[in-house]
Amino acid sequence: MLDPDRDQARELLLDELQKPEYNRPESVITKVLGWLMERLNRLIEIIPGSNGLSTLLLGVVLTILVAGIYFAVRGTRRTGRLTDRATGPVLDEVGLTAADYRARASAAARNGDWDRVLLDSYRAIAAGVDERALLDELPGTTAREIAVGLHAPFPDHAADLLEAADAFDAVCYGDQHATQVQAERVRELDRVLAKTRPARLRAGMNG
What we know:
The longest helix has about 35 residues, at about 50-85. The protein has helices at about 5-15, 30-45, 50-85, 100-110, 115-130, 145-150, 160-170, 180-195, 200-205. By secondary structure, it is mainly alpha-helical.
């Protein structure tokens, strides 16, 4: 239907909104749409002239609304997937050392597999701090929990650790892909932390 009249266009929008992805009670999308439809009806009623102008205006607004709803719902569902799923453990393979993860990251870098570089570099960080006994009960710990736990021993790198943890979750659980810059940043962070004396050890030596 290429040229619907006012009532038909309103029916098209209402039919679109009956789809399951839009049926969220009292959602922001529902409230905004209700407000827009009310203002649109009032605007059309006061437009002088032919029905053709009203129909054209309604068709344009309908197209914009449907496109806006689609991208809003798509973004919300993507964010929800990341929020729901980004809770898995970092170290889910038994028996691998930090050196093993670093070797895998190096091999992945040679192949240009930046997702694998980022993931194994962060796992190398986790395995490395486990080998140095800097965190308790590391098995089953999430990326962000590791980053937060390392604030005390590595306060100068707290922000970098949180950024690396978020990147790990986004790639591992959020269906996103790492760039070379992101992957190399996490890889370099692993190198730096491996050479850095933890703050509590420095304090103990100074005391």
